[in-house]
Amino acid sequence: MTQLDYDLTMVELICYPDVKLESKLGIDNAIANGDRDQRFDLFNLKCNPDATKQESKSLLAIVYSEIQKAKGELNATETIS
Fold first, then answer.
1. Residues near 3 by Cβ (< 8 Å), separated by ≥ 6?
2. Which DSSP letter does residue 51 get?
3. Can you give the pTM of this predicted structure?
């Protein structure tokens, strides 16, 4: 991931739940699949955004991955429809 990807994912996390559908689904999945500490860290990151720290980048990478999965699932659903 580039720093731009981290920054854009941070913006989506800050603006959640008022984001695109695939971003909302991805963030929801990251929250649902994370353990208690990861959920707390995501909330803390939303309240105190910093996309440059290594701990933040690992959380943002998880969220980014979930957003990409959700985007792929939505695209597959639209193709079938």
1. 51, 52
2. T
3. 0.88
Which tens digit of pLDDT belongs to each residue from 17-76? 899 999 999 999 999 999 999 999 999 999 999 888 898 999 999 999 999 999 999 888
Sign of the alpha-carbon torsion through 65, 69, 74, 75 = positive
> How far is residue 81's CA from residue 65's CA, in Å, rounded to a whole number?
25
Alpha helices for 1-81 (secondary structure H) = 3-15, 21-33, 36-47, 54-80
Burial of residue 9, with CB atoms counted within 10 A of its CB: 0-12 exposed, 13-18 middle, 19 or more buried: buried
